[in-house]
Amino acid sequence: MDIERMLAELTLPEKAALVSGKNSWYTAAIDRLDIPALMMTDGPSGLRKQTADSGTTNINDSVQAITYPAAALSASSWNRDLMHQLGEHLGDEARAEQVSLLLGPGVNLKRSPLGGRNFEYLSEDPLVAGELGGAYVQGVQSKHVGVAVKHFAANNRENQRFTASSDMDQRTLRELYLRTFEIIVKAAYPATIMTSYNKINGTLNSQNRRLLRSILRDEWGFHGAVMSDWGAVADNVQALRAGLDLEMPGQGQASVNNIIRAVETGELDEGTLNKAVRHLLHIIENWLPADHAGTYDHAAHHQFARKLADDGIVLLKNRHAELPLDPKTAGKVVVIGELADQPRYQGSGSSHVNPTKLTTPLAALQDSDLEANYYPGYRLDQSETDDSLVEAALTAAKDANHVIIFAGYPENTESEGFDKTSLMLPENQGELIGRLSKINDHVTVVLQNGSAVEMPWIHGVDAVVETYLAGEAVGEATWDIITGAVNPSGHLAETFPQRLTDTPMAPTFGQDPHHEYYTEGMFMGYRYYDTHEMHVLFPFGHGLSYTTFEYTNLAVDENEHGAIITFDLTNTGDRAGQAVPQLYVANHASHVPMPTKELRAFTKVAVAPGETKVVTLKLNRRDFSWWCEGKSRWQADSGDYELMVGDSSRDIRLQTKLTMDFKNSPAPVTAETYLSTIVRDPRLQQIFKETVLAPEHANGNNFLATTDEHGNLALLQDQMFLNMPLRAVIALGGPADLIHDFINAANKR
Ligand code: BGC
Question: Which CATH superfamily is domain 3-286 in?
């Protein structure tokens, strides 16, 4: 395609049509110039292709496709390789279905556990979301299918999502909510970015020039196309001017006419329209669909869905090694809960998939070698207790050797499009868990849910297995973990607080219909709980294994560009397993509010019993940097840092201090420079001693140069003086001429 020639040949109405979207799933085709329509479909954890001729408006009516675990579970794998493979599988399926663009991954941060779309998002931490999201993007695109990374940006609540403004300071925006997108754009070159519905600090994201042009393109070097979320654009001319390339799904001829009018009246420069058209033509050219429909190996893809779920399921609690249950020795096992039969295995809304082969936990039980009887225990379609179901379950559980109860959020409480109102399980489920734990000492709770759950019953149960929304292989994967066929290695990519009221945004989340105030700033998720040393139910990064790992021999090699960290990881148990070493950094060098630790690197390592592996993690300058709003740039400060290697943010196994020297040119010394700054810096202190404090300067008006009875310079010990700028020292009678000499000498390099 000769894009510049096309651009010259396209008429204004054709250009306007191209940037307006044709309908829900296609861009406009320009037959005259052989420009094909480009097809896109949801979604992040499985194809939701609604065929052009099905004419359906039912969101759940799509072609059959593999339903992979929702992002909440796949992210718990902390496994870049598997996320890449997930992308490859999705790419193969999209290619077979002749789709050009896959609308995913969803990478916004899980700010409040009430966020309705948390199941579709990866993590509360931008590094985890960025690295895993980036691997997914690379996987999809390796199969010649483009992605739409969504939803750019700060789409952390669903209520009033079309109009609410996410209001926060620039540092919070840069370090948390934009950071994930920045990592993905720079490392994975996504074909497109989808803007979110919301505003940031009052400006609609799809019409936000700073976001779409200055940051995304100029700063990060994004070369793809920017499309809107469905119906997110309020004014399509403003959107084009701000840097949006494609309004989706477009408002038909109304959108087109508006653009034509704006160009004709001069409201919209045709050059601006051309830019958007150029971006789109590149996308159409680069991501042409396969010329004929294909197939893929459904059984193999289903097995991958199972493998990904196996790798992500998190063993949250395992008192007295309740799990795994060996089918040969388990004795009488009772399985309770309607969710075993009617599992919740995927999220609702635009990521809903029509599965190829759903295996329910109850059906998969038959193939697991475990013998168990099943009792529904509660009804999913109501939250009131059903006494007869409860009685039957309790009677069976009384003399059972092990009880496994399936519990979770029903579909109508958790979906795209609205936020949750509570973190409690339905009353009938919570109450049943409590009663079971009173009559049986071996209760395991298996959870199916999209985000964090409160567990008032936690002390009564022995084991908790978090399966989130595990995809169509939910049944097989659940028993893989419970029976020990697979050793669990999932770790939480979000904190489970004890109570909703413990979350930093509890009093304000969703309260104001027009604004969401990010008053907690940087202190979100573990950055908040850890800094405030609060008790949490399960910390960020937590996940148990059936084996044990030992961390030893931490070594650090640092220079002005960053640091290389190595340590030994030994499997000290008797089963093969995978550990998720996490490297946190505490910044003691910068004089701005800092969380007590921030995740800066992680990996996942398979280790055989008795084996030791050397793990290497790298930190670069950015890992020590913070966003300086005043200077509008990243800043890495020389000084002291602490490195912590852990199995979760609360289970730190190795720790060391480190002094970084970034060879920054120092801030100039002025009359506003504090004495404490001068005393802390060996070079400045030396110059100050020479120019101001030396004995030859100890004349009449220079009280600074006086010494105490031991002959030490009194000033250097005096906290009150140290907390004064030079200007104040002069104002209090200090030697102005000598201090100015010092300032001149200090700034000479
Ligand atoms: C969702 C997007 C989705 C689009 C198309 C929107 O409502 O926010 O994530 O890709 O619909 O289904």
Answer: Glycoside hydrolase, family 3, N-terminal domain (3.20.20.300)
